[in-house]
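An example makes the point: we print one protein in full, the chain in one-letter code, the fold tokenised, without further comment:
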Amino acid sequence: MKANSVEELLAHLHGAVTVDGDSVTVVAEEVLQEKVDDLVYTAVFGEGVTRTTARWLLWELGQELGIYPSSIHELYMSVGRGEVPHNFTVPAINVRGMNFVMSRAIFRAANKLDVGALIFEIARSEIGYTDQRPAEYVSSLLGAAIKEGFRGPLFVQGDHFQVSAKGYAGDAAGEVNAVKELIKEAVAAGFFNIDIDTSTLVDLDQETLDEQQHINYSLSADLTRFVREIEPDGVTVSLGGEIGEVGEKNSTVPELRAYMDGYNRSLGEELQGLSKISVQTGTSHGGVVLPDGSLADVSVDFATLEELSAVARDEYGLGGAVQHGASTLPSEYFNKFPEIGTLEIHLATGFQNIIYDTAPEAIVQKAYAHLKEARRNEWKEGQTEDQFFYKTRKKAFGALKENWWNLGDDVNAEIGQALQNQFEFLFTKLNVGDTRQVANDVTTTLKMRRSRPTEAAEETELEIAADLAD
């Protein structure tokens, strides 16, 4: 149910929550868990001040119950200092579609296995095609956490907050400013983890590694300074850099050193820098699709990944290296990542595939019909229909968001269970079970109460380029 007024919204929560001015109190948590579905629905699909109030309520309820958007910076730096063992790999999960259903499945798996080292993320590109601005994204996560009884730090991350190479070539200042505006919006919404991605500007035609990485590390330092200016008091936003585009040539230790040395020179010693660094070791976003729609075998350079992580920790004090484009890898690969000290792994397409494989045929065909009409210009010459659908079907989540949301309780439960099974498998393989205590112990969690809105929050137009990674 979507509330059509603030009065209707508050009446719906009667018996679960009391609201007195800016103060929100939970009076019956079990009743709230029964009613939070409609609160989230209003936060996503509501209008005007009613939608803004629903989002405010979810934030305040999270604060009341002990669900705190937080930075993973302290955990990662503890790993870098050797105070926390580097024997687990933090899953960073891109929630593209069916946010409430998928996030609930993640929280159920996390509760079952006592996982605290866990990131929810969304890329600049995904924010566009899934139609999930930061405030909406956080609201859905908070609602799912309330529904499933999750407590503790909630790590929300801007993945690939990326500078478009084409945009930068046409208007460098304008493109960088677009990324800064997105960072500003995201941090205000509770994204206290940001992956700065200026790796699109690495110039391999230059002679020296420093020259190749110069724009990359200089802009990373500039964006770091910007984040440090806007981050909330008491929060050190976790920042990641990137030395090579996923799907391109594999990264090397000399490239990592060139980037980090240049970055540290550019930033200076007064500000806190990065906590991790993303590298390329053989994967690609979404995998390589064969003509029949299946995925080609991928070989990950684990030896290079292990060496890059060790250098990041031992020479620069970072938590380690980050692996992108991993959700479609063979299942036997995943236990290798914690064994070699990989700090973080990004997972997206595999969960999208589970949703499409489990969803009713009617919604799948509706999505495909939409793609044929709205995304036909992305159908590359020589692609089969299966390849086209596989590459573009992520872009049906935003256009048909309400259709995906309203598949019905039984269907949502089936999809949610399939997702939960996969999350439990991955959490086990990545060795993040029983990490809740260490995450709680080293993470600074702050209560950040907000004033009750009196008018609708305004959202400026979001600039999303066509050449961004996710």
In short: The longest strand covers residues 152-162.
